[in-house]
């Protein structure tokens, strides 16, 4: 492997303040109780900022602000709402370098990804939904679709700003107002987004950001004056929210966990498939709900493919997220690292064979080397549970029917991958997969125009595309 | 007084203003008419486009079309939004030419409206078809190609025929009615990341140039919205039949350009392509 000189992105392009408040009704404040929590850089364990922890009264204020803003906002002509969203899209484009560095600092993801994937998709998402704001009558939901009201939105830490965009852009385009809670370990980009809203002169109360831990989110989704709940996160929490919302009449969409099968047939071009497998499981440290975490490879090409995959994995660079050469950044938190470590140990103890390339990890921060398990059976926990880390479980199959049966043998159904040169096989297999997104000869592709969401216990509702409007229309 | 020197707000006492030369807009450049002709409009000498100018414009439009259609819908949408940004900044130029402020604003907003359609029209006008057999079958719209536009005289009308044609990937040759307003719009386009040749704009008399475009073998569609005489429209439609051009007929009594344009201005200039593929292991 070639040695690479460090190519660090400048940290000075982002100015992180020592402390941040809640963004309610167009202004920042410290929260009623004055409680705070710290957000750290997972690559160094350095504290980045203290952030206000919103209590019940703060959430009440945020929901009230959103309620007050709802009337005028929903009464605006769609073309005017569109122009606010176009402004937001433009400001994000203009500030994308700053926001990319911020995202890598707070989340640990490689700057290559925050710069080339997250931020371009964030801007594009606002641009896309801006265009819908004055075209809702054409979207196929009736001649005069109406907004729902106040949306309570809770997002995860794996793509903080992108998940915010997926939530806020369609909500605003359709005339709803929002109270959004970012994840406890990655609150900063949402607070910077609040500043973007101010720059865009978005009316106060249309977007409110309340930071905090799980209890803040629980209070928000259970708030009686919230009309619509949107959650992205674990299936476990998704179930709790579905229970809490039951009987309230609130609208609900859930984008939850996954255990995607990435199916490689014997006629697939091996090198392309290997790139797709690597992208599928190691993109964003595997902190991806649609990650291709189960590799199903046809038996006749398994040895060749695994040899090639291991060669490729040995070239992955793990380390400083701000280094432009880095492929795999830091694990987002100590808790997540502990979970990945525990499940990996269970994988080995249940009899699967563990392999990682030689890989020097930094002394400080949270790190996990890219790992594959071979000899995995469908009964192994690492084949059934979402690890949410850079860990790939490899299983084999002999026939397409067996591949489909194994792929569907999971309570999840978010995504799947198919690798074959035969078009008719792609389409036949895709038909039989119980998954909301199927990538063929590619993986982890996202676009604002393309709906995303799961079958079964991966949640319900779709985000993105024309379909993504439905969740926010009465 | 010439329209070009009517920007009163910028007049300096005791200083002679510099007037604008109104030329054609072809392939991203502003040439004079190859014929060397001009005609007088409100005191300005405006280029009088010839048959050869029209043919040059078709060549430029055809050359630009594959790349423009090949750009992502997202990219085309951003370019149209950029037009709105540039036009917003030049609103005073249009009002100085006598366009009402509200109409200029509506024209800017019309660009924004169509910018948003770039990556949505396929989802509204296309989709999967549930054929009775093991086949994947999907229909998607594609641009028809090079479109000749006989444009209405108003600024909002002009924008309302250009934007729906180009947003989907067509390129256009516009025969403009209000020449100073049209060329000012061309100056907006020229500074808006619109690739040269996507919009080509000719000033002059459409009665002279439109027949050549209607019968031109390398023009795919003709929009007759700005044709104000039914007999002329019928004659142009007959000429267009020679190459089976798609024709948008003028609306009796004119179009209300302030209304929601609907999908027709776009779909009239789209082809639908349906792709079949078998399914099976």
Automatic annotation (TrEMBL), chain A:
List the protein's name.
Aldehyde dehydrogenase family protein
By sequence similarity, the record places it as follows: Belongs to the aldehyde dehydrogenase family.
Looking up Pfam families in the UniProt record yields: Aldedh (PF00171)
Q: Which UniProt keywords apply?
A: Oxidoreductase
Q: Indicate the transmembrane segments per the record.
A: none
Q: Where is the active site?
A: 255
Q: Where is the Aldehyde dehydrogenase domain?
A: 35-473
Q: Does the keyword Nucleotide-binding belong to this entry? A: no
Tell me the PANTHER family matching this sequence: ALDEHYDE DEHYDROGENASE-RELATED
From which domain of life does this come?
A: Bacteria
């Amino acid at each position: 492997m070639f040695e690479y000189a460090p190519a660090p992105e400048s940290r000075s392009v982002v100015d992180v303040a020592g402390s941040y408040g809640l963004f309610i009704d167009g202004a920042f404040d410290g929260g009623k109780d004055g409680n705070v929590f710290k957000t750290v850089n997972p690559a160094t364990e350095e504290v980045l900022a203290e952030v206000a922890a919103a209590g019940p009264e703060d959430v009440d204020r945020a929901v009230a602000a959103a309620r007050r803003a709802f009337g005028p906002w929903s009464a605006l002509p769609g073309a005017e709402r569109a122009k606010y969203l176009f402004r937001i899209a433009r400001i994000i484009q203009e500030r994308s370098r700053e926001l990319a560095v911020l995202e890598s600092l707070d989340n640990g993801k490689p700057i290559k990804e925050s710069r080339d994937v997250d931020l371009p998709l964030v801007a594009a998402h606002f641009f896309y939904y801006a265009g819908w704001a004055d075209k809702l009558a054409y979207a196929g939901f009736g001649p005069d679709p109406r907004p729902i009201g106040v949306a309570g939105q809770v997002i995860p830490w794996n793509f903080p700003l992108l998940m915010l965009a997926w939530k806020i852009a369609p909500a605003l385009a359709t005339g709803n107002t929002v109270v959004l809670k970012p994840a406890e370990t990655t609150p900063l980009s949402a607070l910077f987004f609040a500043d973007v809203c101010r720059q865009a002169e978005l009316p106060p109360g249309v977007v409110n950001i309340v930071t905090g831990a799980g209890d803040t989110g629980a209070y928000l989704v259970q708030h009686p004056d919230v009309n619509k709940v949107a959650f992205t996160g674990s299936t476990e929490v998704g179930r709790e929210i579905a229970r809490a919302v039951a009987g309230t009449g609130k609208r609900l969409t859930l984008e939850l966990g996954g255990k995607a099968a990435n199916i490689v047939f014997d006629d697939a071009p091996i090198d392309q498939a290997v790139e797709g497998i690597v992208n599928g499981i190691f993109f964003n440290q595997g902190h991806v709900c649609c990650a291709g975490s189960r590799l199903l490879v046809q038996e006749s090409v398994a040895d060749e493919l695994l040899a090639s995959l291991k060669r490729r994995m040995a070239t992955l660079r793990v380390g400083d997220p701000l280094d432009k050469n880095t492929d795999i950044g830091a694990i987002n938190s100590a808790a997540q690292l502990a979970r990945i470590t525990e499940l990996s140990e269970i994988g080995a103890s249940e009899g699967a064979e563990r392999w990682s390339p030689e890989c020097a990890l930094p002394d400080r921060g949270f790190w996990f080397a890219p790992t594959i398990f071979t000899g995995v059976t469908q009964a192994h926990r690492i084949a059934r549970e979402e690890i949410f880390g850079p860990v790939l479980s490899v299983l084999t199959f002999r026939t397409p029917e067996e591949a489909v049966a194994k792929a569907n043998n999971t309570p999840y159904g978010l995504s799947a991958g198919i690798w074959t040169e035969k078009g008719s096989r792609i389409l036949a297999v895709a038909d039989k997969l119980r998954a909301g997104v199927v990538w063929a000869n590619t993986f982890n592709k996202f676009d604002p125009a393309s709906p995303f969401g799961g079958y079964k216990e991966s949640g319900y509702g779709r985000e993105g595309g024309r379909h993504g409007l439905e969740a926010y229309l009465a | 007084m010439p329209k070009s020197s009517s920007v009163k707000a910028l007049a300096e006492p005791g200083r002679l203003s510099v007037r604008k030369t109104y030329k054609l807009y072809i392939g991203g450049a502003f040439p004079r008419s190859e014929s060397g002709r001009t005609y007088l409009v409100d005191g300005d000498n405006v280029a009088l486009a010839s048959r050869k100018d029209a043919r040059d414009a078709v060549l430029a439009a055809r050359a630009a079309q594959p790349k423009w259609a090949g750009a992502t819908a997202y990219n085309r949408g951003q370019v149209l939004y950029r037009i709105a940004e540039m036009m917003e900044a030049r609103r005073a130029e249009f009002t100085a030419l006598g366009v009402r402020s509200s109409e200029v604003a509506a024209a800017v907003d019309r660009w924004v409206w169509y910018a948003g359609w770039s990556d949505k029209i396929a989802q509204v006008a296309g989709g999967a078809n549930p054929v009775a057999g093991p086949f994947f079958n999907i229909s998607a719209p594609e641009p028809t190609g090079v479109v000749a536009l006989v444009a209405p005289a108003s600024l909002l009308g002009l924008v309302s025929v250009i934007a729906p044609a180009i947003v989907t990937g067509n390129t256009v040759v516009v025969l403009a009615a209000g020449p100073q307003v049209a060329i000012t719009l061309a100056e907006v386009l020229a500074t808006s990341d619109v690739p040269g040749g996507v919009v080509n704009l000719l000033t002059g008399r459409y009665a002279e140039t439109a027949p050549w475009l209607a019968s031109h073998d390398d023009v795919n569609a003709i929009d007759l919205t700005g044709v104000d005489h039914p007999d002329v429209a019928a004659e142009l439609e007959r000429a267009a039949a020679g190459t089976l051009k798609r024709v948008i007929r003028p609306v009796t009594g004119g179009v209300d350009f302030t209304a929601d344009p609907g999908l027709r201005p776009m779909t009239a200039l789209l082809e639908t392509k349906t792709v079949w593929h078998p399914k099976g292991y």
